[in-house]
């Protein structure tokens, strides 16, 4: 006589209801399910279908991401569409390209592509449901231990979390084991797909799932439950740390003297003990949205920022994070973003004749030249915008003469003699940069306007005295704005 499989003692629809209530998802918001078609997401999809019948106040969407990494990818997408029709839930198939290279993790690249594809279909306040379960939590804790992470990493996954512009991440199955899920699927004859890559032990999670966790469970049957408990305790302690850091951190964050962005004040930081120095620097890195650094990297950065000679040039590259020091402050930027913004050309020619002739300018007004702003691309994240302005309240550049060619230039020599309208005496450019407190790496990003080969203005800083409008006649005002 065959052994009868016990019916699982959990209801997926009720678990979803609990998560939605904890997340306080508003009526009219969308509940989106990351739908792979595997056994875990199929069980969650069936539960969502049951929940949807009783809760019409929400909108629903299944999202299947087609990575194109398997020869079965088309079949999986077709399966998900078929199942969605049975569940009476709308579905979106998102095709993505996964970057593959010798130094790239396929797991990480696929995960990032999947995340971007799914969240592109969500708005603030929407809820994203994933089928992570108790054994996934154990895998996450073990991977955090392997990476040497602290309480934040060991906190692993929460049942409800806020992310990305007030969206809600819901994991209704986080307290349910893989065995329970598979048992439920078998008892209800739920059809699901099998991803062959799940059997490849070269991937870390698969290695843990196939070779390590079964042995751990054979020795300690409740290890997934106890590991989840430890993760919850770490999350509790991390919440206290985060609250205290959030109170102290603002006093260390200062706006840059010119332009946008912030810097991290180091003079006060040196007065703290080492533990708080590390916590505050880590907090600032997180505040800026950069990837977290390891403890060794944090200690290395802290040593360089606080202990190196005052005149030493500090420039650390740690992954994609670039850390620099200037005048007792730390500046962080993205290596990849700076590379993307590197100026391809040093000079842009600009023909203003037709633009100015089409501008309708009246005294006391400041309008865009022509039907739209003229944008001079000098990078990816910033643009120079030309305005025609007749208001005497703003500083303006006189119009170019017919024989004067207008150009935008960068990386102007520091020895260039300048005569700013806002100071009495002229001075070399490099001295002005020091006076303005502009970090060396930011100086090459400042656009300069020239008429022929004569400097007219440094956009955002000054106008040369010889070119400033002295009366109420119309003039030009150049501004630097962030791109949309």
TrEMBL record:
<dbReference type="GO" id="GO:0032267">
    <property type="term" value="F:tRNA(Ile)-lysidine synthase activity"/>
</dbReference>
<dbReference type="Pfam" id="PF01171">
    <property type="entry name" value="ATP_bind_3"/>
</dbReference>
<dbReference type="Pfam" id="PF09179">
    <property type="entry name" value="TilS"/>
</dbReference>
<dbReference type="InterPro" id="IPR012795">
    <property type="entry name" value="tRNA_Ile_lys_synt_N"/>
</dbReference>
<dbReference type="InterPro" id="IPR014729">
    <property type="entry name" value="Rossmann-like_a/b/a_fold"/>
</dbReference>
<dbReference type="GO" id="GO:0005524">
    <property type="term" value="F:ATP binding"/>
</dbReference>
<feature type="domain" description="Lysidine-tRNA(Ile) synthetase C-terminal">
    <location>
        <begin position="406"/>
        <end position="480"/>
    </location>
</feature>
<dbReference type="InterPro" id="IPR011063">
    <property type="entry name" value="TilS/TtcA_N"/>
</dbReference>
<dbReference type="GO" id="GO:0005737">
    <property type="term" value="C:cytoplasm"/>
</dbReference>
<keyword id="KW-0547">Nucleotide-binding</keyword>
<comment type="similarity">
    <text>Belongs to the tRNA(Ile)-lysidine synthase family.</text>
</comment>
<feature type="binding site">
    <location>
        <begin position="36"/>
        <end position="41"/>
    </location>
    <ligand>
        <name>ATP</name>
    </ligand>
</feature>
<comment type="function">
    <text>Ligates lysine onto the cytidine present at position 34 of the AUA codon-specific tRNA(Ile) that contains the anticodon CAU, in an ATP-dependent manner. Cytidine is converted to lysidine, thus changing the amino acid specificity of the tRNA from methionine to isoleucine.</text>
</comment>
<dbReference type="InterPro" id="IPR015262">
    <property type="entry name" value="tRNA_Ile_lys_synt_subst-bd"/>
</dbReference>
<dbReference type="Pfam" id="PF11734">
    <property type="entry name" value="TilS_C"/>
</dbReference>
<dbReference type="InterPro" id="IPR012796">
    <property type="entry name" value="Lysidine-tRNA-synth_C"/>
</dbReference>
<keyword id="KW-0819">tRNA processing</keyword>
<keyword id="KW-0067">ATP-binding</keyword>
<dbReference type="InterPro" id="IPR012094">
    <property type="entry name" value="tRNA_Ile_lys_synt"/>
</dbReference>
<keyword id="KW-0963">Cytoplasm</keyword>
<keyword id="KW-0436">Ligase</keyword>
<protein>
    <recommendedName>
        <fullName>tRNA(Ile)-lysidine synthase</fullName>
        <ecNumber>6.3.4.19</ecNumber>
    </recommendedName>
</protein>
<dbReference type="GO" id="GO:0006400">
    <property type="term" value="P:tRNA modification"/>
</dbReference>
């Amino acid at each position: 006589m065959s052994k009868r499989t016990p019916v699982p003692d959990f209801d997926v629809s009720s678990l979803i209801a609990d998560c939605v209530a904890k997340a306080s998802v508003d009526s009219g918001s969308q509940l989106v399910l990351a739908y792979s078609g595997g056994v875990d997401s199929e069980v969650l999809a069936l539960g969502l279908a049951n929940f949807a019948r009783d809760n019409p106040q929400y909108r629903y969407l299944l999202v299947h991401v087609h990575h194109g990494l398997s020869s079965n990818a088309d079949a999986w997408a077709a399966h998900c569409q078929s199942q969605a029709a049975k569940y009476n839930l709308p579905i979106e198939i998102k095709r993505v390209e996964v970057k593959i290279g010798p130094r790239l993790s396929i797991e990480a690249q696929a995960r990032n592509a999947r995340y971007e594809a799914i969240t592109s279909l969500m708005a603030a306040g929407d809820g994203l449901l994933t089928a992570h379960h108790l054994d996934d939590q154990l895998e996450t804790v073990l991977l955090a231990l392997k990476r040497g992470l602290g309480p934040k990493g060991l906190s692993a996954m929460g049942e409800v979390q806020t992310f990305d512009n007030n969206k809600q991440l819901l994991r209704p199955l986080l307290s349910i084991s893989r065995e329970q899920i598979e048992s439920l699927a078998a008892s209800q004859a739920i059809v699901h797909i099998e991803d062959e890559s799940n059997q490849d032990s070269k991937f870390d999670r698969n290695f843990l799932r196939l070779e390590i966790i079964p042995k751990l469970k054979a020795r300690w049957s409740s290890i997934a439950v106890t590991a989840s408990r430890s993760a919850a305790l770490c999350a509790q302690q991390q919440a206290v740390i985060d609250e205290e850091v959030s109170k102290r951190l603002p006093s260390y964050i200062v706006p840059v003297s010119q332009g946008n962005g912030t810097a991290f004040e180091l003079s006060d930081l040196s007065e703290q003990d080492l533990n708080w120095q590390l916590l505050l620097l880590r907090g600032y890195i997180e505040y800026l949205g950069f990837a977290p650094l390891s403890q060794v990297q944090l200690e290395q950065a802290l040593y360089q920022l606080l202990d190196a000679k005052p005149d030493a040039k500090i420039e650390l590259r740690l992954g994609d994070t670039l850390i620099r020091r200037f005048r007792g402050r730390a500046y962080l930027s993205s290596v990849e973003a700076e590379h993307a913004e590197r100026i391809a050309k040093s000079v842009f020619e600009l023909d203003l004749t037709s633009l100015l002739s089409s501008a309708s300018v009246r005294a006391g007004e400041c309008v865009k030249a022509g039907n739209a702003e003229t944008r001079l691309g000098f990078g990816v994240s910033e643009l120079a915008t030309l305005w025609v302005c007749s208001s005497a309240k703003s500083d303006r550049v006189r119009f170019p003469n017919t024989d004067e060619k207008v150009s935008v230039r960068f990386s102007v020599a520091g020895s260039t003699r300048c005569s700013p309208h806002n100071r009495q005496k002229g001075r070399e450019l490099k001295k002005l940069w020091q006076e303005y407190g502009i970090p060396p790496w930011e100086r090459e990003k400042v656009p300069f306007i020239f008429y022929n080969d004569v400097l007219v203005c440094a956009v955002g800083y000054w106008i040369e005295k010889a070119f400033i409008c002295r009366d109420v006649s119309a003039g030009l005002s150049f501004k630097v704005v962030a791109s949309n």
